[in-house]
Amino acid sequence: MKRILLRALRWGAVLLLVIMVALIGRGWYAFRDRVPGYTLDVKIDAAPSQAAPQPLRAGFGRVKINPDLSDPKRPVWVAGFGQNRAATALHDDLWAIACVLDDGHSRVGMVVLDAIGFFHDDVVAVRRACAAEWKLDYVIVCSTHNHSTPDLMGMWGPHPLKSGVDPRYREQVIAAAARSLGDAVAALQPARVAYHEIPMPTDGLVADTRKPIVFDSDARVMHFTGIGNGHTLGTIVGWANHPETPWSRNTELTSDFCGFLRDALEHGVQQEGRQLAAGVGGIHLYVNGAVGGLMTTHPSVTVRDPYLDQEFKEPSHAKSRAVGHQLAARILPRLHEPHVSRYDFAPIGVRARTLEMPIDNKLFLAAAYLGVFDRGHVRWRHLRTEVALLTIGEASIACVPGEIYPEIINGGIERPPGADFDIEPVEVPPLREVMPGRVKFVFGLANDELGYLIPKSEWDVKPPFLYDSNGVYGEINSCGPEAGRIIHAALAELCREMTPVAAGE
Q: Which one of 158, 170, 196, 453 counts the least CB within 10 Å of its CB?
């Protein structure tokens, strides 16, 4: 009996050791650095271009990123809302849309994906897929944060423990993003740029579903036209709203209001053969802004289509179209204005660097361990991410690697009673106060998706919840209470380093 017992104990110890080694091995594999040694510290001064101005050149390109829906054995999981939402059809095309700008001294590229989000490791893969002869000094990859596109992050698979990312589709998107940049390089031509800030009322358009009520409401536009004929080459449009208009029951892939806006800017708006609004041609990028907090066209919001004179409340593709038309109705008149200052050169400046983001969210750590999140960690409980600040003539662009709360950008951070940290606001001054330039863009979900970036004084996971709310959705989908402070501080530092310059005639 003793021999049997000793043998059982020995085998039990061996089995326990094997399990421990397997668990440790799984942890090592899950949290390994996917791009070991990668670091980035870009410093491009606009001063040389300002001192010896060269003609601005701009180019645009786009490549479809529609997934294959033909194989029922390989369902395409729709991102956003909940798990087990398989795509049933393609309502309209999804795109990787790129713009490349060259001031004669420096060249930068930006590509925007109709996607829920793209991790920093994948952004690095896009950069490495770019050909050396394209001579891109810096590349930005953004996501529109569309909730009716394939899962590219992992959270929305068939169940919470299974990633929804199809590796083949991820590679397709990486290749398409790089190819769109190459097409934009090939399309480079002398251009003029005009800058617009366009008031965009929020009533009947977008709601802030978490107090304090602070919006990043206005639209900002860079409009590029050809030197020779004045034809539109393309635009960069920045505005802040979650593209989730069809809402949670939709299973048709769609570019949401982003696509309807782009189509209206290019082709105009027609109905039954009648031209209701004239487009300007070209290729158009829609870039999301400060959507934290949570900026969305909620089902409670009724949206009026200004061209079709119809109202839509229930989630639908028609409601998405109405949102796109609301934006187009305010942007198109500006693009058609004949007497607008247009600049032949726009000096480019860049400050960009990688940084480490601590992960306090245990759900994020568990998702990484289980392979639901397939991204590397530079060390235990720390991700590599990136911030950037660009100046393009009179415009500046703050590249934010997540969904930042508008009060960090525009001001209005509160110190509500009962918050988890009884402190004064630390993400001050607001970033737009320290950004250089006249027209100040915020590119959300730029070069990464870290989730919500929340003011620390508004962090709230312990009941009673602030403002009589009934949940902590933002905090559940955030790296932790320090994330907003870290990103704010990093971007503020880049702003202090950047020397503002003006565009030239």
A: 158
**What is the residue whose two structure tokens read 């300007």?**
280
Nearest-angstrom CA–CA distance, 48 and 54: 10
* Reported confidence tier of residue 334, pLDDT bands at 50, 70, 90: very high
User: Read out DSSP for 423-437?
Assistant: ----S-S-HHHH--S
List Cα–Cα distances, 19 to 104, 318, 505, in angstroms. 59, 54, 69
Could you read off the pLDDT of 350-380 as tens digits, one per residue? 999 999 999 999 999 999 999 999 998 999 9
CA distance 389 to 487: 12
Radius of gyration over every alpha carbon of the chain, rounded to an integer in angstroms: 24
In a 13 Å sphere around the CA of 284, the CA atoms on its Cβ side amount to: 27
**C-beta of residue 290 within 8 angstroms of C-beta of residue 444:** yes
How buried is residue 216: exposed, middle or buried, by Cβ count under 10 Å (0-12/13-18/19+)? buried
> Residue 505: is its pLDDT beyond 50?
no
E strand residue ranges, 23-106: 41-44, 57-64, 89-90, 95-102
What are the residues facing 356 on neighbouring strands? 384
The pLDDT value given to residue 502: 55
